[in-house]
Fold:
Amino acid sequence: MTFEKHNNPLGGKPMSKIRYLLASSALLSAALTAPARAVDWQFSGFVRTETALNTENDPLNIFNQNGNPYNIHPTSRNGLFPDTTQRSEVNSPQQIDLQQFRAELDATGRFNDEFSIVTRMRVLADPGAYAHEPGTKPNYLGYTTSGDNHPIPLEFSSNNYNIDFPALFAEYNNGPLDVRLGNQQIAWGQAIFFRVLDVPQGLDWRRHSLLDYVPEEFSDKRVPAPALRISYQLTDNWLVDSFVEKFEPSVYPNQNTPYNFIASQFTVHDHYGKYDADTNEGIRVKGSIGDIGLQAIYTHRFNPDGVYRWTASGVNRDIPGLPGSGQLLQHTAFEVSPNGVWSANEWFNYAAQSRLNGLDGLNKSITDFAPYTSLLGAVPVPNIAYARKELDTFFQLAGGGAIGNNNGGLVGHIAREYRQEDDIGAGASYVTNGAPGSLLDQLIINVETLYTPRRTFTSPDLGHDFITKPEVTTAVVLEKYQRFFESFPATYLVGQFLYKSQSDIFGRYIGGLGGTENKLPHGYGGGFKAAAFALQQPFPNLIWRFDFAALYDLKGGILLQPAIRWKPSGNWSMELFYNYINARIGNNPNENIFGGVQYANEVTLRVGYQF
Structure:
């Protein structure tokens, strides 16, 4: 299997939603009333076990309660009075990063030459055999939002299992026309780590985060959505494809799960329920003029990554020794809880790890919730020294320090919202001709660029006023098959370079990068830059294949994934791969995308049976 290629062109002027539905109804009605015969069903699928073992000596995910470094280090505070605190949780090294069991069943039923039904059911089970905080039951595979307990249609999940239907659609195909109506995944662009034109749908990061088997790209991660998709082959060289879909957000790992990357000292209020009836629309055209391939896209969509801000906790819990204070505190962004932050050192450290500004974040948590914060004695501060004094004072109070206790801190509450944007993209490709057998012979050069005039980002201060700026995203992709040895099949090679003017590959605003426990983030100019490289080398008998992939953030972080694939028969297969992460090649790991996730050096074994 080679790297996935997606040629799903879009172009022309978008149709209205009403015209889309009318066109779809007419076409599908014609298909259903066509002369029918017995339905011809075809079935396939697989079952697979996946295990990832951590290779670090003391692997701790710092974004979980049982991986917080302040659990084991006494920390000095200087608030109302000098004291020393130590969080009450006990760290549990994470030796098993992943243990999941998967099954997939594909069924295609063909009614006649034009009409068919395509279905795919996925079953994912996770026993939860990981280190976690005693007395807790993390939600490994579920996803719930405020006001909507079933945000993804045709997904049924709980803490330890997930069943969904990434494909459940009717397809009508008649000559140059193809219509798909129903739940489906829409993939655009081509990349192994980077997504430029691949904007129709978000990603499900519950599925082994960024550390999955690279040759499969994002094929298992795109969040499916009910959609109407119409493609039309205009000429032999030009194809137009368009869609209207229900907006679905990206899904992130839940608190205290192995790959969680939102600090557990936050409680997230996901407001997707307010956007549940919204839609995305897009159109793409792809073709060629001579030897040059061309493509153009336009989408009007809600960015599935979402943006975050401080929000009122709604929790009426008193500060120890201050009866009635909970009535004010519930209107602020904080809640008294031992699962929160206990010291100013912890506050600034986690702000930096989360690519946030600890000083500005404190001030916004005060000014955005006046007068309740003022009535509690909180005031904006001019610098880190004053911030540390104020923070330690409130953490001491929240833990009962004023009455002789030392057993808690403050949990911060943040809201996740979604903003619309227009994405305008273009691409070009060219195949070179060189001396036979040379590296320049049949080299495919592909360039993709996306311009978003108004993209909304989470502000590093988590304020209610989000950051809105134009963003340019560009990728250059080089790929080819090259034969190095006569006795071996050709090697597939791909190299990529990505540039983003305002955010990293996770959509985080680069102005929040570069902080530490003792230094505020400075961001950096020149945009985010990363490079990727991958190869696949089949062995002569085609039973074995060696894969390798690398992702390098030019600010000093790298992911390397060597892999071996074994397929002895048409049914059994095995993939063994290793993820090596180093976030400290540069000066500050919080300047690159791998800072905070270096714990996830791991070896993964997948064994599957196909039928």
Notes: Confidence is low (pLDDT under 50) at residues 1-36.
